[in-house]
Amino acid sequence: MQFPKSEKLELELTSKCTLFCPNCPRTYQADQRKIWDNGHINHEALIEWLKSTGFTRFQLGGAYGDGIYHPHLVATLRAIKAMGPGHHFNFDTNGSYRSEKDWQAIADLMTRKDCIIFSIDGTPANFTQYRVNADWPSIEKGARIIANGNGRCRWKYIVFKYNQTFEDMKTAYDTAMDIGFPEFVIVHTHRAEAGQLANKEDFDENLTKLEEYVYNLNPPSMIGRQWAQPKLNVAVTPRTSMFKVKEIIENKEQNVHEKHVSNGKGNDITLLENKPDNKEIKLNVNKQRRYQWAPTIVRDPIHTEKVSPQCINMKNHSNFISSDGNFLPCCYMRVNQQDHFDHAGITKEDEKSLSIYNNTFDEIIEGVAIKKIMSNFDNIELCTRQCKKAKAI
Ligand SMILES: C[S@@+](CC[C@H](N)C(=O)[O-])C[C@H]1O[C@@H](n2cnc3c(N)ncnc32)[C@H](O)[C@@H]1O
Ligand code: SF4
Ligand code: SF4
Q1: Is 80 exceeded by the pLDDT of residue 275?
Q2: Ligand 3 pocket, mutate which of 330, 346, 376 (most atoms under 8 A from CB)
Q3: What is the pTM of this model?
């Protein structure tokens, strides 16, 4: 079987960052820097390689760095957009310390299908508790430029104990509204420092208050080129298996457990789970709140003894390029990469078959390293955990 081609590719343009977020691998693996700090990707080689691949949807993110610190970020984004009108990017960034001139150049490239996601976990006064060393003045300037442009932008607020109050969420939402963010996303995470995991019940109550607050504002409308009111959304921890239809957020309101899962035939199956019997509960103002994107599962999905591999079974599952120029089936493989390669029996020589500097895309997906991954899902501990075979499938 050949490794399936996807439209989506995550790019780790660099392993550099100026922040020290405690639950980021670059922070908690600071002692292993020699292993993961590859510096900046060769953007010219990357762009040449991309042209023959068929990828059209790019996610700038990565595990160890922030693309904002690649010296040729603007040229790279320009080259992606120049590949054709159907090429788009989403870019997760902490947003700090980049010049207004660069933000303007990025804004000028963007359309409504491109999005900058600013990771700001809290209010301007407290978000540096997680985003250690972030710089609000430069973030705000950048965000105002992007919000005034033709592209989209999103304030992404990961909830921790220090920022879980309704007042903090409201302050951040109001600031997002003032800046002109069209989107505001609350993210529930399991990745938190000791004592900083958000309390589920408090979080739920506060989120409902925020929903009520947003609901009672005027309906979304445009003032000039700016949105009067950001669209509120709720997401689960990124990088959670799409196969695991499980409760991530324990909201006791009615209808919020509606989850939509594709049946692979273009239809959505709506699963209603854990609908509470409690008649006393308040009306949930946002009946459409859904927690997970609907993935499309390919026909005749493949399951090994222990694994339902997302990279094989999900249509357009995002593949990954690390800052050292290696192609990986998914972002999960990047952290502790050597362990996963050892489990798959990938040698140093085999690893060369993953390099975008030495191979075409077709050579990579037909190469020995990808073949070893595909025949060793059950031996790769990461795959047995991240893509654990779901009982219902
Ligand atoms: C390593 S970061 C790279 C992108 C960029 N530097 C950023 O922070 O947005 C990859 C993703 O992990 C997210 N992230 C960081 N800490 C997290 C946490 N504790 N829980 C969930 N997601 C987290 C970031 O917001 C980002 O979307
Ligand atoms: S901004 Fe992103 S890359 Fe930088 S330390 Fe924080 S999570 Fe990691
Ligand atoms: S964890 Fe393993 S099975 Fe899952 S997407 Fe990544 S490579 Fe594929």
Answers
A1: no
A2: 330
A3: 0.87
Q: Residue whose CA is closest, atom 26 of ligand 1?
A: 92
Collapsing DSSP to helix, strand or coil, 366 comes out as coil
Q: What sign for the dihedral angle of Cα 206, 207, 212, 218?
A: positive
> Residue 228: pLDDT band by 50, 70, 90 thresholds?
low
25 neighbors 333 (Cβ within 8 angstroms): no
Tell whether the model's pLDDT for residue 153 goes beyond 70. Answer: yes
Residue at token pair 């997002």? 176
Taking the CA of 343 as reference, the closest ligand is 3
Helix axes 136-147, 166-179, angle to 10 degrees: 50
The confidence score (pLDDT) of residue 42 equals: 98
Q: Which ligand is nearest to the CA of 23?
A: 1
Is 65 close to ligand 2, i.e. is its CB under 6 Å away? yes
Bridging pattern class, strands 327-328 and 319-321: antiparallel
308 CA closest ligand 3 atom index: 3
- Burial label for 75, CB within 10 Å (0-12, 13-18, 19+), is middle
